[in-house]
């Protein structure tokens, strides 16, 4: 695609360069076969704030009662937002 005259677009020049685009990194593996670590997720009904909140899954661990994910998420408070990091049951986490 050409814009504004006879100059080729950056995309056209990159395609003609012969250099392959960088490969996208594979998603980080998960320990439990579910959602990969480092992935955005929905946090459902954490103890300190009912509702669904956006979060980031940091790591997995297996506890006596099943899998738990360590997540970071922000919740609304009366005087602003608060960042929370907690271990929650896998059932409360959903991929985004």
> Proportion of β residues?
35-45%
The total count of helices amounts to 1
Number of strands: 5
> Which class do the helix and strand fractions yield?
mainly beta
Q: Which ranges are low-confidence, i.e. pLDDT below 50, for 5 or more consecutive residues?
A: none
Level-1 CATH class name: Mainly Beta
Describe this structure in words.
By secondary structure, the protein is mainly beta. It has one domain (24-95): SH3 type barrels (Roll). The chain has one helix and five strands; from the N terminus they run αβββββ. Strands 4-3-2-1-5 form a five-stranded antiparallel sheet, with no helix packed on it. The longest helix is centred in the first third of the chain and has 7 residues, at 10-16. It is elongated and about 60 Å long. The two termini are 34 Å apart. The model has no long low-confidence stretch (mean pLDDT 81).
Helix-strand blueprint:
Blueprint: H1 10-16, E1 40-44, E2 52-63, E3 66-77, E4 80-89, E5 93-95
Antiparallel strand pairs: 1-2, 1-5, 2-3, 3-4
Quick tags:
single chain; 96 residues; five-stranded antiparallel β-sheet; 1 helix
Short description:
This protein has about 100 residues and is mainly beta. The chain has one helix at about 10-15, and strands at about 40-45, 50-65, 65-75, 80-90, 95.
């Amino acid at each position: 695609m050409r814009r504004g005259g006879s100059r080729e677009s950056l995309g056209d020049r990159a395609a003609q360069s012969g250099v392959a685009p960088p490969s996208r990194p594979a998603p980080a593996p998960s320990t439990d076969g579910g959602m990969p670590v480092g992935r955005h997720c929905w946090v459902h009904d954490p103890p300190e704030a009912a509702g669904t909140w956006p979060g980031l899954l940091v790591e997995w661990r297996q506890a006596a009662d099943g899998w738990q994910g360590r997540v970071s998420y922000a919740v609304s408070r009366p005087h602003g937002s608060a960042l929370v990091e907690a271990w929650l049951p896998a059932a409360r986490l959903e991929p985004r």
